[in-house]
Amino acid sequence: MTPRTVSGDVGRDRRRVQYPAARGRMDVGQDGQRRPCAVVVGAGIAGLAAATGLAAATGLAAATGLAERGFRVEVIERERYLGGRVGGWTETLSDGTTVGMNRGFHAFFAQYYNLRKLLSRSDPGLTRLQRIDDYPLIDADGHREGFRHLPRTPPWNAVAFALRSPTFRLRDLIRMNARAAAPLAAVSVPQTYRQLDHLDAETFLRRINFPAAARHLAFDVFSRSFFVAPGQMSAAELAAMFHIYFLGSNEGLVFDVARDNFDVALWNPLAEYLTAPAVPGRPGSVVFHTGVSVTRIESDGAGFRLHVDTGSCLAADAVVLAVDVAGLREIVAASPGLGTAEWRSRVAELATAPAFVVHRLWLDRPLRRDRPSFLATGNLDPVDNISVLDRYERTAAEWARERGGSIVELHAYAAAEQLPGAPVRQELRGRLCARLHEIYPESAQARIVGERTLWHQDCPRFAPGDFARRPEVATPHPRLMLAGDGIRVDLPVALMERAATTGWIAATELARQWRAAGHSLQTVPNRGRSALLRTLAIRERSSS
Q1: Which candidate among 67, 298, 387, 421 keeps its CA 20 to 30 Å from the CA of 329?
Q2: What is the C-alpha to C-alpha distance for residues 276 and 65, in angstroms, rounded to an integer?
């Protein structure tokens, strides 16, 4: 795809880039032809984007009523709910109250163009999202940062942030190594990975001579979004993150959140749209199989046979594997006929980030009214984030209003190299609560009505040197695609947006096999905005 600048009204950044959709048939079943069956394994963001891309109208919201793509799509999901790591479900507290639960808040940034396109299928106006006021950051020394009222346009957003920062002074700017720092403002994918992926983020920031306090308060938050400490994260990933959210886009760093638990606000409406009965202009619907796992896949002529843990088998003309790292490794290892030896080796090398924990508390009294919905912390181990759910989530607010209480969630990223045993989990729970009481003293007086602790280790690793060997969307089999936030894509996207983007690409690549139209994509600009800094970065690249 050849990028071009967008001039429409989707997003605010006039320099965002669009990759136009490939032309083709709008309905692969037109003229009475047999509709191919595509099986999507995994109903997270990537899988849902792929499923939507194979069944939905080109790049437009559901309300437009345009013709569907026409694939018969079946989605297999091992959990009982949709959304993957952004899924939501219900649980029952000890007093019998039914409550919403998920794996912690997710930030829906304005520059997540491809994710927002997916959500707009069932919510054209994105009314189920709401913009937060701010996302303050604090550290152990009492410093406090925020992103509210910053100018959106680079580089003035960075200048304004530095001028009002308590951890960044003019003398720090003078002492910085401008040549070493140039790649931060001159990101281009995949060139930045070729330049920086051999370095870890901590070493890179030390070379820049970035102030230690500012490093803890700002860059650590970026790195820990990948569930790793800066010493374990690729410097290229850090530079790309800084570009996507700060220096490469004027969409801003203040983000949207879901107005309700993820199942209610996002995925149930999307599932209702995708499973709607066939009507004129909408040739077919998606079928979901939840609580089912694929155990292995066999090639069957030009198609596939998928074996599932119920003992049954599904035939498919095309497959998208949109599962997590461990799931992808397991399926490929159990399917010796898939791919080449080189490709299978690259899949086997994929690794996960350290384990993280989400600890949610239902308290019998409210926190102070001035407490923010979200608070990021630096150097306040083990807490990385404190969320007050009743400030933004509808069902949580109803519970808090009825009980006169509050629902608080504590996140600890990179909490352990591997999933720990019960003693370590209990010890960390105590430390998390102690830190909450230190930061929000009124919480110490509250009685815990209910609590849930979730430990997981299923996020992809983005360590130095990983990029070159990471498998891409296309595989050696033209009708087998990969999708997910751990899959390589040479575009400036990250986290949920990378998942959505790879899902759309997988759908486009499969649609091409049947001469069907593809899907357009949008990203932040794939180059730094400053010509001077781009020149410095090129010189630095040439000398390294």
Answers
A1: 421
A2: 13
**Whole-angstrom distance, CA of residue 54 vs CA of residue 84:** 19
CB 509 within 8 A of CB 473: yes
Range(s) of the chain covered by CATH 3.30.519: 90-113+124-132+352-456
Instruction: Name beta bridge partners: 319.
Output: 39, 480
Q: DSSP letter at 268? A: H
Token duo for residue 48: 């849902």
Cα–Cα distance, 521 to 511 (Å, whole number): 15
Q: Rg of the chain over CA atoms, in angstroms?
A: 23
**Average pLDDT value over all residues in the chain:** 88
Question: Helices marked H in 209-314 — which ranges?
Answer: 212-214, 220-224, 235-242, 262, 268-274
User: What is the CB neighbour count within 10 angstroms for residue 81?
Assistant: 19
- CA-based nearest residue to 316, from 511, 74, 504: 74
- For CATH 3.50.50.60, list the domain ranges present in the chain: 4-84+261-350+465-523
- Using CA atoms, how far residue 455 sits from 81, 350, 361, 411, in Å, is 18, 20, 15, 10
CA distances in angstroms from 222 to 105, 187, 201, 495, listed in the order given = 15, 16, 10, 11
Instruction: Report the side by side order of strands in the sheet with 144-145.
Output: 144-145, 137-139, 374-378, 385-388, 406-416, 355-363, 448-456
Instruction: Give residue-wise pLDDT tens across range 413-427.
Output: 999 999 999 999 999
Q: Write the DSSP symbol of residue 389.
A: G
Q: What is the pLDDT of residues 359-404, one digit of tens each?
A: 999 999 999 999 999 999 988 999 999 999 999 999 999 999 999 9
* Beta-bridge partner residues of 306: 297, 314
Q: Which of 469, 503, 468, 508 is nearest to 485 (CA)?
A: 503
The dihedral built from the CA positions of residue 221, 223, 226 and 229, taken in this order, carries a sign that is negative
Q: Which of 19, 17, 5 is nearest to 519 (CA)?
A: 19
Tokens coding 261: 């638990």
CATH number of the domain at 4-84+261-350+465-523, please? 3.50.50.60
Distances (CA, A) of 171 to 144, 206, 218, 478, 483: 20, 16, 18, 56, 45
- Tokens standing for 392? 């933004």
Structure confidence at residue 527 as a pLDDT band (50, 70, 90): confident
3-state secondary structure 317-370: CEEEECCCHHHHHHHHHCCCCCCCHHHHHHHHCCCECCEEEEEEEEECCCCCCC
